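TL;DR need structure tokens for one chain.
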Amino acid sequence: MSGEGGAVGRTQPRLDAAAIEAIIARLLVVGTYLAMAFILVGVLGMLAGSIDPMNHGTPPPFDLSRVPGDVIALRPEGFLWLGIGTVIALPIGRVVVAGVGFLATQDRRLALVSLAVLLVVTVSILAALGLSG
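>> reply
TL;DR here they are.
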């Protein structure tokens, strides 16, 4: 029984720091590829529609409720906004995955830090929406 690596009945956390970081890395890599693919589809759609992506006047307005319809209708601006939205969502996703990982490893202190970061981001988004509307 000696040298067996711990007390009887103690359970090991299902995730460790390396596993959490690997999951986060996968999220960021896949998310970045998706975002760039959406933006590429949007730019190619603009070129196919004879719109110069670098000189087309004012940017299309952002309306979150229109993005799904624009994507389904294969409008380039829908793909551009989807790509930009994905890029913006990636850091938030990273904090969420880290927070869930910290909870899974029973690290309540860092889970609370993740929650605090999410609260600050949420308040910032709500304040920005309030200022723009």
